Amino acid sequence: MTTATNATNAKTTTTTTTTAVTPTAHPVLKPALRRGWRDLSNVQFGVAPAHALVLGPMDTATSSFLTLLDGTRGVPLLREEARRMGLPDGHVHRLLGELSRAGLLDDSTGGGPAADALRARGEVMDRLRADLASLSLLSSEPGDAMAKAAARRAMRVRVQGAGRVGAVVASVLAGAGVGRVDVLDGGHVQPWDVAPGGLPAESVGERRDTTARRIVRQSAPGRPPRRSAEPEGAAGLSLVIIAPRDGLDAYAPAPAAAEELLASGTPHLYAGVIEGTGVVGPLVLPGTTACAECLFRQRADRDPTWPRMLAQWRSGPARQVPACDLALSTSVAGLAAGRALAFLDSGSSAGAGVRWMASVPGFEWHSSPIWPHPSCSCGAGVSVKGDRPTADTKPHATMAG
Q: What is the architecture of the domain spanning 154-369?
């Protein structure tokens, strides 16, 4: 029997797995993980500690058998191959069970009907293979990566804002296989809106929303599945990403701007850049986690001058050119897209109610919780006892905005 252990900086923590029968029809070792011999009897799968595992003890015959797990053979044929290699009866059954429980095994035919339809589109599959390899690391269930990729194709996301952050987020989500990515913004593309992966230089002078929708189509790996007419407004949206070109509206979002999303129960995520500081979050799950009004109330509780300062900043003359460092805006877009995909793939609230911030030139990301406020009308804070402040500023009595 083999034992799976976690490999972390050359140290291992043993976790013995059971030998339950794997439901995998066409087993394939997850292609994302490299493997190598740690010693004469233990094989390590994966390089980076986050997903690396050690399996052992293992003999050379079993190691040779692993090369047959490429997804082209069903379990009956693998048993025949094992017998020809001199492996004992039941060995394949036990080995596949261990590999499956360790999260090292995928199924080249798994994922259900939607996954089968996706496999039939060869060009789309080729574009998504790197994403599929990454998705396979996130679940121990064979076929789950394909199921998630197919589920993305049926999702609809709206990005509000087509500046250096929003346009890149939209193109990344489309390229990662999200079936419908809508982009909303006004005005025309300015030279400082241009960004690699976002609005191109040749689009200067064009309408922002028209150009953003074009790059979304160009980024997408093929057309999404056809569907019936979609509902108006926020209904039917899997997620809204609020990425305004004015970073103040991401750092201190106006509660009124999210009223429709709260009323419809639509999850939404804030992202933007203000004065050389990148902001991602919070991800708002209406009625469950902190919203924009919670954020405002928490800050006003800590700093009574906050409402007055916000009113001045919002009523002052608009800045024609924002301070939006290209490297920082790209980092913000990448993190926002990553948090969005993590939520879309799992539906988990694990990343909700948290804000990430980083500033130039250090680019060191720091996270802080955003608690529901007990007095907020969103209702998420009804069970909160007292006021729990966030940590998006240093605890200094005279710290400015």
A: 3-Layer(aba) Sandwich (3.40)
Domain boundaries, the chain: 3-107, 113-151, 154-369
8-state DSSP, 244: -
Residues 297-303: contacts with CB within 8 Å, 24+ apart? 297/373, 297/375, 297/376, 298/370, 298/371, 298/373, 298/387, 298/388, 298/389, 298/390, 299/252, 299/390, 301/373, 301/387, 301/389, 302/389
- pTM over cut 0.90: no
Three-state DSSP state, 128: helix
pLDDT 10s digits, 27-39: 999 989 999 999 9
Q: Which CATH number fits domain 3-107: 3.60.15.10, 3.90.930.60, 2.60.40.10, 1.10.1760.20?
A: 3.90.930.60
CA distance 389 to 372: 10
CB 160 within 8 A of CB 266: no
Q: How confident is the model at residue 399 (pLDDT cuts 50, 70, 90)?
A: very low
Two tokens at 350? 């694990």
